[in-house]
Amino acid sequence: MQIIKGRTNIDFISKRRIALLISSLLNLGIVVGIAIFGFNLGVDFAGGTLVEVKFKQPVDAETVREAGKKGELHDLTVQRVGSDDDASFLLRMGGTTQLTAEGGKKAEEAVRSLGEVKFVQKPDLDNGILNFRMAAALPPAENEKEALAKAKAAIETSGVGVKDVVRVGEAQGGGIDYQVHFAGMELKVSSALRANLPGKDFEVRRVDYVGPQVGKQLRNKGIMALLYAALFILIYVAFRFEFKFGPGALVAMIHDVVMCAGYFLVTRREFNLTSIAVLLTVLGYSINDTIVIYDRIREEMARFKGKPLPEIINIAVNDTLSRTILTSGVTALSLVGLLIFGVGEIFDFAAAMLVGIVVGTYSSVYIASPLTIWLDERAAHAGQDGNNEADRVRQQVGGLVQALREVAPGAPFHCRAPGPAFASSDLPKKEPPAPFEVGGRRRRLRCDAG
Questions:
Q1: How far is it, in rounded angstroms, from Cα 199 to Cα 228?
Q2: Helices 61-70 and 185-196: angle between axes, nearest 10 degrees
Q3: For residues 224 and 75, what is the distance between their CA atoms, to the nearest angstrom?
């Protein structure tokens, strides 16, 4: 299948400077924005509780938010999922249980009212656990189930939901250990919405818990995954192509990742593990398109020896233009379906991937290729400077040898310098080294009778 009939002759490379300027400004703006505002981190990275609810009657996000605040759901954010007609919302809160620092103090007081308490440990806010030791079994001792139920009811008077109270066992130093497990946030969410939204029926579709330590580990591992992927791709490009192609591919990958990250920064959509999957996918897509163009450039370099590299790149990009449009277009079409029918994380994945496809195709032409041209020109200038230096040395040595011929005509001699040896027959025996200047540094030419 051919989208473009015949060969095109578009001068892409002539626009590379303005393209590089715009790309640099956009990338700089995104990096500064990330440093100042940061991402809207999801539960995967920030830790906390995510509850998805769907109402059977129409309701707006602000009404749900007010109901949550009245129910003492602190640090609550409400996000609509899907269309306006679909009354589904994501409720995100900090913490994985109802236990807070203030609630922990009240729960300690409630535990001490149960009887003769030997000690109460500091509440574990991250895991929602409170350990305490009684001098004797909770009353009534003959019915442990009833005793634990009474203890649960007593602790709940502190205002913190309790999942259960369990007997751990007898302590070695005497007494009996117990453990309180505080309820998760989904129970408090359900209670708050039912109490403050009468007549609004809903169902809890999903509940996700991630502790703060786990969230930090996931975030660090996600960053390392991106770095490792970029490193291995760079190694692959370095082995497959010349060195001058490697930096362009690396900078293009960084450009694409930053632009995709900009989508999450600007839209304030949740940045979570799905976002990391998007960035990794964009890395692969970007380097795939770049390698296709690099392959064609290498073929054209062998075919048009002596032709300037910018012209060769223009030929390569025009030759692969039909393939690029076809591949990118088909991939984008599949994402459009996800954009229309997808919700939540699926929609975010499709939208960010669409951004990645566009910038990945763009960077292969206007980021990777111009950097390759720049490195090629830099290498050419360095080679020219080296040739000029060699010519200058040869001229100075030749002048010195001529002067020595005039000093001692007919005497054979052999001169050595950094580089090729110089031979003549006009130097007296044991002549001391004669100095000469090259590049601002004093060097010596050694001449001996031959």
A1: 53
A2: 110
A3: 30
Residues 6+ apart with CB under 8 A from 213: 47, 126
H/E stretch holding 357 reads helix 345-363
The pTM (predicted TM-score) of the whole model is 0.65
Residues 6+ apart with CB under 8 A from 337: none
Cβ contacts of 368 within 8 Å, gap of 6 or more: 245, 248, 249, 251, 252, 290, 293, 294
Q: CB pairs under 8 A, 24+ apart, for 379-386? A: 379/244
Residue-wise burial string across 134-159, b where 16 or more C-beta atoms lie within 10 A, e elsewhere: beebbeeeeeeeebbebbbebbeebe
Residue 284 has pLDDT above 80, yes or no: yes
Strand 270-271 and strand 40-41: the pairing is parallel
Sheet strand arrangement including 434-438? 422-424, 413-416, 441-449, 434-438
Residue 265 corresponds to which tokens in the numbers above? 């920064």
What strand order describes the sheet that includes 117-120?
117-120, 129-134, 176-182, 162-170
Integer Cα distance of 266 and 30 in angstroms: 9
pLDDT greater than 90 at residue 300: no
Domains of the chain, first to last: 13-41+211-380 (1.20.1640.10), 48-96+187-209 (3.30.70.100), 101-183 (3.30.70), 410-450 (no CATH)
User: Residue 123 is encoded by which pair of tokens?
Assistant: 């509440």
- What distance in Å separates the CA atoms of residue 143 and residue 280, rounded to the nearest whole number? 57
Closest by CA position to 308, among listed 55, 13, 89: 13
Q: How confident is the model at residue 124 (pLDDT cuts 50, 70, 90)?
A: confident
Nearest one of 314, 305, 294, 302 to 238, comparing CA atoms: 294
Bridge partners of residue 78, in order along the sequence: 91
What does the mean pLDDT of the chain come to?
80
- By the 8 A CB rule, do 396 and 409 touch? no
Residues 6+ apart with CB under 8 A from 395: none
Which of 359, 356, 230, 371 has its CA nearest to residue 297?
371
> Cβ(55)–Cβ(202) under 8 Å?
yes
Neighbours of 116 (CB within 10 A): 9
